[in-house]
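Researcher: Let's run the pair from yesterday's discussion. Sequence first, then tokens, for each.
Model: Starting with the first of the pair.
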Amino acid sequence: MFREMRRNRQALSAGDASALLEAGTSGVLAVAGDDGYPYAVPLSYACDREGERIWFHCARSGHKLDAVRRCEKASFCVIVQDQIVPEKYTTHFRSVIAFGRVRELTDEAERRTAALALARKYHPGDSEEHRQSYLDRSWASLCLLELRVEHLTGKQARELAEASS
């Protein structure tokens, strides 16, 4: 169903790809937008430790949510390293792409899991009490999405792959 990576010597192991996904702080969600145009939007995210679920928050209306409701299939790309090497006309990069299906979370327990994962990722030093208080105040207006990962690939620059062999 999913294509094999063309430059498979640069492929990361499943564990390394999951670790990159967890380490990243932002990525680009690509969905089927209006009139057949792709719609790619940069987002903050959090994921579970296994790299099986990726969570986002969003407004209760808008292009992204309309697209997800119309077609659940999506991809999410995270670039964790991108060091320009001008003298070689290249970059030393590490990236990961997840393919899967996105859904709006409606179950209260699932919403709480996603919201707490996002809060812990972006403010790890916050107290649980303050975190809960903040979530309680914004809970009614919070819309949360989950991408259930069906396929995950990671890739790194040839130079980085050779250095780690």
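Model: Moving on to the second of the pair.
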Amino acid sequence: MTYQVHIIGGGLAGSEAAWQLAEAGIKVRLSEMRGVEPTAAHKTEQLAELVCSNSFRSDDDTSNAVGLLHAEMRAMGSLILREADKHRVPAGSALAVDRDGYAQGVTDAIRNHPNIALVRERVDALPDGPAIIATGPLTAQSLAEAIGQETGQEALAFFDALAPIVYRDTVNMDIAWMASRWDKGDSKDYINCPMDKEQYLAFVDALLKGDKTEFKEWEANTPYFDGCMPIEVMAERGLDTLRHGPMKPVGLDNPRTGRWPYAVVQLRQDNALGTLWNMVGFQTKLKHAEQVRIFRMIPGLESAEFARLGGLHRNTFIQSPKLLDAALRLKSRPNIRFAGQITGCEGYIESAGVGLLAGRFLAAELAGQPLRPPPPTTALGALLGHITGGGNANTFQPMNV
């Protein structure tokens, strides 16, 4: 197939951008490295694979920023939201998905679209024609170097961490119980593991003393993104930090006591069968053996078996306010647009949203119909404003909606 647009990267942003262009009648070549060369975080070759949580966060329509972004993207025909809705699993008011079914749905939709050619290949140089680079936080070194040579700027980076996943049948439900916070949602969607004060203090002490992954020399000065902070790093910020964060007990009545526990660890369903549950907010850089030892201190998880343990990977992004224009074009080479996490957005749905915008901008440009950026009063407009127009480029940091 002769293509009009080259998209590099088949994650959430690249898949969404390809879909928007293809639906506008434009022929797309979508290059995805996985299948030829693996990454440090991905486990499969599926497009739009979710490597951390299985949640797209709040789905409360327009009552908050994330819900508003969901609503705007659904109205604009988002492939990512369409497949997320098809493969959602119970999660209270959040939109969580069976990650395998969802990724397979996106992959099938892209593979079967007559206007998209999915090619498994690594791209090492910047394209000459109309293109969108959506290679995400794990951009191949060769392409990252090409971007650096073109922009004259070193890529910035931060650490992102993965949360463990537990087999449901190894959770002790004589201690844990099912509930959503404040009984929100249609059902009791979370497994809740309660702690009293003594248990909580012992757990925090173990986190602080646990053996952690050592950084490589080139990672030494890389900061964490606050929205995905490892749990032991949160614990270092103060004794009660976790009780006001991922282990917050408010709104969760323990049916065995009728009271809120001192702290709670929540697990959220991770697949459609309900056999896998992820530990909410428990991103970590603890070594694997330490994770098993310390997380089995949690009441209800004393015999837990883990389908996946937590991990740590380095994310890369560019100084977008300095390098990109208001339509996500690279100022020095306007044939190239950037989309997704590499632009400095953070989060699954944010990455897909920026991919949607990049695809729409390029489709309009090719049709000779310039598309105005969305107003800053919209979630998409606010996200775009942060990436392309906001603040000091030298202190630019990733931000979710």
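Researcher: Give me one sentence on the second I can quote.
Model: The radius of gyration is 21 Å.
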